[in-house]
Amino acid sequence: MSASEPHNVAVFRTWLVDNGANIHPAVRFQPVASGFNVTAGSDVPADTTVVSIPFSLAITPDIARTALKQLLKVPESAFEQWNERQLESTYIAFHWMIDPSVSEGLLKHGPYVRTLPPPAKLRTPLHFSDVELKAFQGSNLYGATLDRRRDWETEWQQCKAVIDAVDTNWGAQYTWDRYLTACTYLSSRAFPSTMLSLEPSLVNTPTSHPVLLPGIDSLNHARGQPVSWVITTSETSEPSITLVIHSHTRSGSELLNNYGPKPNSEFILGYGFSLPRNPDDSIVLKIGGPSAPRPPALSSTSSSAPEADTTRRWEVGRNASGAEPVWEAVLAAVIAESAEDDEEMDEDDDDEDEPSVEDELCAADMLAEMAQSLHDRLPPFPPANATEMRPEVLLMLEHYLEGQRDILQALVAFAREKEAAAMEKAREQGLDVVNEEEDEE
C-alpha cells in the first residue's frame, strides 16, 4: 500500500486480500479526475500477474438475487421479470440505501462500491447535459441513448414497485439517479460471464450476462494491449481469475487492460470514453423488408433498438468492411421490385432472379445515394454550442463523427465501384447504357 492512496482504497485493498485476492505489490491506485487509475509503483516486468481474485468476489446475478431475496423477504418469484442488470444494479444500490455493516453479511461489496466514481464523474451519454446530447442528434448514438434511457427507466420502475411494496422508505431511497449510476457501473466495468469459465473469453454469448470483478475491473483499456486471463483451480481452494500483463510497464506508468475490439459508439455509450481514429469503428445499417417504402430504405440504426421482423441489420466498418452483404441486400431488393413491376416477365424464365446490368446500376446508385444521405444527416463538428460542452464530451463527439463519416464515405466509394463494374459489364455485352451523372455534366 502507498501512503498516497486514499483511505477508501486502502480499505478496498485490505478487503480484497482478506477475501482471497492477490495484488502485485507494485500496483497503485492513483486518484484522477474520473476516479482512479491503476499505476506501477515500480517497474513491472512483462508476463506479470497483476491481480487475481476468487470467483466468490464477483458480483453476479445469483449473488444479487440471493441477497435481495433475504433483504426484502420476498419469494424468488418476485424477481421473475427482472433481468441480470436489474438484479445486480439493485444489489449495488442497496449498498447506498442501508448500512452494509448491519445487513447480516448480505451486502458484502461495500469496500468495492465505495471506490467507484461518483455520478458527477461519469461520462456516458445518459450523464450528458441536454446541450451535449443534442450535439449528437442525427447519429446512431443519439437514438441509442434515447432507447437506453427508455429501457432503463422502465426497468427501474419495475424494480421500484417491488421495493415500495416491501418498504416505502427503501422505495423512496431507490431513486432513478441511483439506478442509473449502478447500471452505468455495469456498462462501463462489467465483463461477460464467459470470463468465469475454464476457458475465459471476452465474447458475449446468448446465455452470458454481465459480472463485476472487483480489482480486475479497475484497470483502464488500451487497444492491442497484450494480456491473458488465467483460471486457476485446485482441490484446496475455490477457482480464481487472474489478469496477466505481457508488456513491460515502467514505474509511474499506467497498468492497462484490454477490453477487446470495440467501436467508439460502444465505448462512448457504455464506458464514457473514445479512441482517436479507432480502427474498430463501425455503423449499423438496416434495410426495410417487404413493408418498407419503395425503393427499399437504408438507414442507420441504434444497436439497442428492437429488430422488426421485416428489417435486417448489417454492421459496416472502415474501408467498407462488411459492405458486400449490404450490397447484396440492396441488389436483391431491386431485383424483387423489378420482377414485381414487370408484367411481361415470363414466369418460366430460369434467369428471372439473375441481376441485369440495369439492376446492378440501379442498386449501385441507390446504395451510394442512401449512404451519402446518412452522411449528410450527421451533426456538424464543431457544434454551434461547443463552448457549452465539457472538453471530454466534445472530444468523444469528434472521435465518433470522424469514424462515422469515414465509414459512410467508404460505403459511397464502394457503391461507385459497383457502378463502374456494371458499366464495364454493359460495354462487354455491347449494351448502350447512359451514365446519368456523366450525361448531366
Find the structural class using helix and strand composition. alpha+beta
Bin the strand percentage.
5-15%
The Cα radius of gyration reads 26 Å
Distance between the termini: 72 Å
Mean pLDDT: 89
Largest sheet: 4 strands, antiparallel
Fraction of residues in helices? Answer: 40-55%
One letter per element, helices H and strands E, the order comes to: HEEEEHHHHHHHEEEEEEHEEEHHHH
Task: Provide the spatial order of strands within the biggest beta sheet.
Answer: 1-4-9-8
Assembly category: single chain
Task: Indicate the low-confidence ranges by residue numbers.
Answer: 290-295, 304-309
Q: Layout of helices and strands, plus pairs?
A:
Layout: H1 7-18, E1 22-23, E2 27-32, E3 35-40, E4 48-54, H2 61-72, H3 84-97, H4 110-113, H5 130-134, H6 140-166, H7 168-173, H8 176-189, E5 191-192, E6 210-211, E7 220-221, E8 227-232, E9 240-245, E10 256-257, H9 264-271, E11 282-288, E12 298-300, E13 311-317, H10 323-341, H11 357-377, H12 391-428, H13 436-440
Parallel strand pairs: 7-10
Antiparallel strand pairs: 1-4, 2-3, 4-9, 5-6, 8-9, 11-12, 11-13
Describe this structure in words.
- With 441 residues, the chain is α+β, with helices and mostly antiparallel strands.
- Helices cover 42% and strands 13% of the residues.
- The protein has helices at residues 7-18, 61-72, 84-97, 110-113, 130-134, 140-166, 168-173, 176-189, 264-271, 323-341, 357-377, 391-428, 436-440; strands at residues 22-23, 27-32, 35-40, 48-54, 191-192, 210-211, 220-221, 227-232, 240-245, 256-257, 282-288, 298-300, 311-317.
- Strands 1-4-9-8 form a four-stranded antiparallel sheet, with helices on one face.
- Mean pLDDT is 89; it is low at 290-295 and 304-309.
